[in-house]
Amino acid sequence: MKSVLKLILIISIPTFFSGCEEDENKNFQTDLSLEANQLFKISTVWGESLYFGLLNFEDYSQIPSGELPGCPSVLIESAEKRVTLTFDPTNACEQSGKVKRTGKLILQYPLISTNSSSWILTYQGYTFQNDTIRGAREFSVSALNQVTETFINLKTTSNKNLNTTFSGTLNHSLTKLRNKLIGMSSTGSISGTNSTGRNFSIDISSPRQSLATCFSQNEILPIAGKENWTIDRGQSRVVMHSINYETSGSCAVTAKVTLSDGRNLLIIP
């Protein structure tokens, strides 16, 4: 799978990479940039469909398809309180973000909404940038404009048949204007096992802040936030990297990865 974004070293060493896979480098334990690239990809796979999960049932009847990331067709089944999003990359979609999706996202909402309602987002034959994603995510109202997200064993499979499995518990604070979602702030953690069998975790140490206006242009990176990435190398060795997101204007985002050895990587959209 090709990476969503390129990561390049911004210090003076001849290391460039994009879309690397672990089977292309058997000495993975010493390739920090490759390790960071994989963790960035996992974080992006989780984040790219977050907006869909945080919209409520009524939102989907009010937002045009062209203002949803990737311009999916939208099937609303009122009696079942179900929304099906179908992504076809051949459809015309005039959005600045160019990430591609195929397949379906199915959102099942409760027939009767309460102050503690829960709903499910399920991946069906779904791919993001050629990675297949399987599983489901549950969202629950925890307080006014507060949503808790949990999922167990989401699985991604690359076009080289490399598998990563991860679970997470996250909290989202929603900002609304006249009952319309305009922004979200997310905290929490994700942990799992990568394709070489190593355990990893992603901890959001400073809230990931995202804007609905950016998602509406298929721009999927947060405009602010920090994540700490940890990977278990075995034999009681743990390596930590981090990433900082910040906006450079509108939905343009710059992000800097700091590797465990102190080197910096710059994410280039």
Proportion in helices: 10-25%
Decide which structural class fits the backbone.
mainly beta
Could you give the order of strands across the largest sheet?
Answer: 2-1-15-14-13-12-11-10-9-8-7-6-5-4-3
Strand content: over 45%
Task: Give the total of domains.
Answer: 1
Number of strands: 15
Q: Report the mean per-residue pLDDT as an integer.
A: 88
Gyration radius, rounded = 18 Å
Overall geometry comes to: globular
| N-C termini distance | 16 Å
What count of helical segments does DSSP give?
4
Biggest β-sheet strands, sense, barrel: 15 strands, antiparallel
**What is the H-and-E element order?**
EEHHHEEEEEEEEEHEEEE
Unreliable segments of 5+ consecutive residues:
1-5, 10-30
